[in-house]
From TrEMBL:
It comes from Streptomyces chumphonensis. Keywords: Cell membrane, Membrane, Transmembrane, Transmembrane helix. Its main location: membrane. It is a multi-pass membrane protein. This is MFS transporter. The chain crosses the membrane at residues 18-37, 57-78, 85-109, 115-133, 145-163, 175-195, 216-238, 253-272, 284-303, 309-331, 338-358, 370-391. The keyword Flavoprotein does not apply. GO terms for molecular function: transmembrane transporter activity. CDD domains: MFS_NepI_like. InterPro entries: MFS, MFS_dom, MFS_Efflux_Transporters, MFS_trans_sf.
Length: 402
């Protein structure tokens, strides 16, 4: 075989690998958008199904709790199953859950569908996080991993706003049905573009426990995930009633504002992603500090114009959370990526659930501004913790968490 032929074969392999990366990225975008879709639709869903905004927030809490369990359980229990088959089955479950939600006549049915969704979220994210190593050449692994996890950021900063706009134009059931259709389209992409992915040795329960006991960087990352993600979702889960009830934003503008929030968040994702690839600890400092400042400012603000501008700052700050935290975990445990990622996913999803649950209680029993103050307090603790680690790292001359 000539050198030119070898080059062509190699180039085609790289292209196929990147197409597979794109399919996995769209898959993560889909499952995370599915988890957060109710955020922009709480009020119309609650109104039609006769539940309060706080109770409607359980649509975010329930899949988060299930995903927190399913991530490590499936990572350990998938055994010898081909990872391609597992990912395709989980994506099919996403489609089925959203078809069921779109036709549900009772809130309990929607919650049941959200349980199915939670299984998919935890498993898909945990397996997809380490696939770059098997899809592209070694020199492209870092970039491919960043692309895959950009799907997580894109879901919260673009998926939710687009879902909200769809719901405003055609009703919340249309938004759920559209997400179900997207899941089926992604399923087709996974079938066509993913190569066979025979099972490799996954982590055991002992591996997960050992990582927690022996790796201080992983333990710190879990604590930061809890603080930042819980703080954010205390408030963000109820961003629609916040915009309407506190800032007087009309129904027709909520989707547009969330889309602007999404654009700012996407910018934050790429800004923090580049910095986190060089050093994860310093990259998280402006994220936690920015969330603290924005949430506190929103709690003090009642004007629509000021609230709109702060919403953009909120998107910019949170856009870097998932890529920044994922970089932290990959740097903390470079030789145990699946175990570290499954723990990260479990913590992230559990924090979403906890934030949505606690925020709902505060909204129903205190006020719309209470979750903002609570979220700012948690983000402040995270910012102080990150600041201390950055100072400690600078003093010791190290870059990565250990």
């Amino acid at each position: 075989m000539s050198g030119i032929q070898v080059f062509d074969v190699g180039r085609r392999a790289v292209v196929r690998g990147w197409l597979a990366v794109a399919a996995v990225t769209l898959g993560i975008f889909t499952v995370m958008t599915a988890e957060l879709l109710p955020v922009g639709l709480l009020t119309p869903i609650g109104g039609e199904l006769h539940v309060s905004d706080g109770t409607a927030g359980l649509m975010v809490t329930v899949p988060g709790l299930v995903a927190a369990v399913s991530a490590p359980v499936l990572a350990v229990g998938a055994g010898r199953l081909d990872r391609r088959l597992v990912l395709c089955a989980l994506m099919a479950l996403v489609g089925a859950a959203h078809v069921l939600s779109a036709v549900a006549g009772h809130f309990a049915v929607v919650l049941g569908a959200r349980v199915l969704l939670g299984v998919s979220i935890g498993g898909f994210w945990a397996f997809a996080g380490g696939l770059a190593l098997r899809l592209v050449p070694a020199r492209h692994v870092g970039r491919a991993t960043s692309v895959i996890f950009a799907g997580v950021s894109a879901a919260s900063v673009l998926g939710v706003p687009l879902g909200t706009l769809t719901g405003e134009l055609g009703g919340w059931r249309t938004a759920f049905a559209a997400l179900g259709a997207l899941a089926l389209a992604v399923l087709g992409g996974l079938v066509l573009l993913l190569p066979p992915l025979p099972a490799e040795r996954g982590p055991s329960p002992a591996d997960l426990g050992g990582l927690l006991r022996s790796n201080a960087g992983v333990r710190t990352g879990l604590a930061l995930t809890f603080l930042v993600v819980t703080g954010h979702f205390l408030a963000y889960t109820f961003v629609r009633p916040l915009l309407q009830g506190r800032y007087g934003i009309g129904d027709d503008l909520v989707g547009v504002l969330l889309l602007a929030y999404g654009g700012a968040g996407l910018a934050g994702n790429f800004l923090v992603g580049g910095a986190a690839a060089r050093a994860a600890r310093p990259a998280l400092l402006p994220v936690a500090g920015g969330l603290t400042a924005v949430l506190a400012a929103l709690a003090l603000t009642t004007g629509g114009t000021a609230g709109t501008l702060l919403l953009l700052g909120w998107g910019l700050a949170f856009g870097g959370v998932s890529v920044g935290l994922q970089s932290w975990f990959l740097a903390a445990a470079p030789d145990a990526t699946l175990a570290a990622t499954s723990l990260f996913v479990a913590a992230f999803c559990l924090s979403i659930a906890l934030g949505a649950f606690l925020g709902g209680r505060l909204v129903d029993s205190v006020s719309l501004s209470a979750p903002l103050w609570a979220g700012a307090a948690l983000a402040l603790v995270a910012a102080v913790a990150v600041g201390r680690t950055v100072i400690g790292t600078t003093t010791k001359g190290k870059e990565a968490p250990s």
